[in-house]
């Protein structure tokens, strides 16, 4: 993932980079509006934007949504009442049993074999289309009467996002788990090799397998759950949380009641220090939902957690949070201890530990199943 450094220093460094005058003039025709902190924006060129990415500066790219004011739609991040005691251990255990590390390894090998999954490259589109077809296969195999998948085409970039919906009895109440499907490297972004096995193929494939197991649960298969459950795969996270912004901005405008959102971004690396534990992100997330996640970890996982921070707009949960929806982010380790190979051609399957991926699957299974049956109207 990314670390923060002073913004103006990064922009100054970018401005001194040499480039042909004609190319600079052409790029200057479009400026990007980035939100680097709540209510703080800056306009930059494309080169400056990517320099900020290379310098690990977090931001929302709000260029396409300058008129969207989340505060107008939702004045504050709501905090639903989450369970204080878990009650679906048997069902969750049966779901987890159906998630196979061998299957995940096979699928991640394919997903990371695309030359890259860059949001504006033909490879990135092809990879998203492959994942969409895999999701379609899962839904068709399940024969669930109401489950559906949408391929979300975005106006300003080519790579689509994917949304699966499994309607509940109370259709307006929605529980979401999501991950981003794109990848990036620092140099030669559109044409360079960016396998993105851990960042974020690991979570994308984990959710694909969890979806399959979730749909096989007898109560879910009959539609005998209260709340609508959605699985999301977001495009263009690496370039300003674009896909998740488009989706959650839309949900805010439409008045969709998101009761919980769990983001999974990088789930396959145990840590540089050899001490296996989750990183539970506490900044720009929902405290009440984080407490519920701690309960899930203690009940369903075999490893502990350590609280961590990642800064403003560090991953897709931030798009939900910015729109007033409660969200959490469970990371592979505490920040700073994570996979050192991300955003390079070396982010390969060789550095993914599938037993660690399973730990995330266990918590995520508990999250979606427990909350699918939670009466948020009580």
UniProtKB/TrEMBL annotation:
Coiled coil start-end: none
MF terms (GO), sorted A to Z: aminopeptidase activity; metal ion binding; metalloexopeptidase activity
GO terms of biological process kind: proteolysis
Keyword Transmembrane helix (UniProt): no
EC number(s) stated in the UniProt entry for this protein: 3.4.-.-
Enzyme class: hydrolase
Signal peptide: 1-23
Entries under InterPro entries matching the protein: M28_fam (IPR045175), Peptidase_M28 (IPR007484)
Cofactor requirements of the protein: Zn(2+)
Superkingdom as given in the UniProt entry: Eukaryota
Sequence intervals crossing the membrane: none
General function of this protein: Extracellular aminopeptidase that allows assimilation of proteinaceous substrates.
Sequence similarity: Belongs to the peptidase M28 family. M28E subfamily.
Protein name as it appears in the record: Peptide hydrolase
Organism field: Fusarium langsethiae
């Amino acid at each position: 993932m990314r670390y923060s450094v002073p913004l103006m220093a990064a922009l100054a460094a970018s401005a001194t980079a040499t480039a042909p005058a004609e190319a600079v003039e052409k790029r200057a025709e479009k400026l990007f509006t980035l939100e680097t902190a709540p209510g703080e924006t800056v306009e930059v060129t494309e080169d400056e934007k990517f320099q900020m990415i290379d310098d690990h500066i977090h931001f929302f790219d709000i260029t396409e949504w300058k008129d969207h004011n989340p505060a107008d739609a939702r004045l504050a991040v709501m905090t639903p009442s989450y369970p204080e005691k878990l009650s679906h251990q048997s069902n969750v255990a049966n779901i987890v049993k159906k998630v196979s590390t061998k299957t995940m390894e096979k699928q991640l090998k394919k997903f990371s074999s695309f030359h890259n999954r860059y949001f504006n490259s033909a490879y990135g589109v092809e990879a998203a289309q492959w994942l969409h077809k895999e999701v379609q296969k899962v839904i068709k195999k399940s024969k669930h009467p109401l489950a559906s998948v949408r391929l979300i085409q975005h106006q300003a970039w080519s790579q689509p996002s994917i949304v699966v919906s499994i309607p509940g009895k109370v259709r307006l109440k929605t529980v979401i788990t999501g991950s981003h499907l794109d990848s990036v490297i620092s140099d030669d972004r559109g044409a360079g090799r960016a396998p993105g096995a851990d960042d974020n193929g690991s979570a994308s494939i984990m959710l694909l397998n969890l979806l399959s197991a979730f749909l096989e649960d007898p109560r879910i298969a009959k539609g005998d759950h209260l709340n609508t459950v959605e699985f999301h795969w977001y495009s263009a996270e690496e370039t300003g949380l674009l896909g998740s912004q488009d989706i959650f901005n839309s949900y805010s405008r439409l008045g969709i009641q998101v009761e919980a959102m769990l983001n999974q971004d990088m789930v396959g690396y145990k840590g540089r220090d050899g001490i296996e534990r989750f990183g539970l992100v506490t900044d720009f997330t929902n405290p009440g939902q984080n407490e519920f996640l701690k309960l899930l970890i203690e009940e369903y996982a075999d490893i502990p957690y350590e609280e961590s921070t990642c800064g403003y707009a560090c991953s897709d949960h931030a798009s939900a949070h910015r729109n007033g929806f409660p969200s959490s982010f469970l990371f592979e380790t505490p920040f700073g201890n994570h996979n050192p190979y991300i955003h390079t051609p070396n982010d390969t399957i060789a550095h993914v530990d599938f037993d660690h991926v399973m730990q995330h699957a266990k918590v995520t299974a508990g999250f979606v199943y427990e909350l699918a049956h939670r009466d948020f109207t009580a």
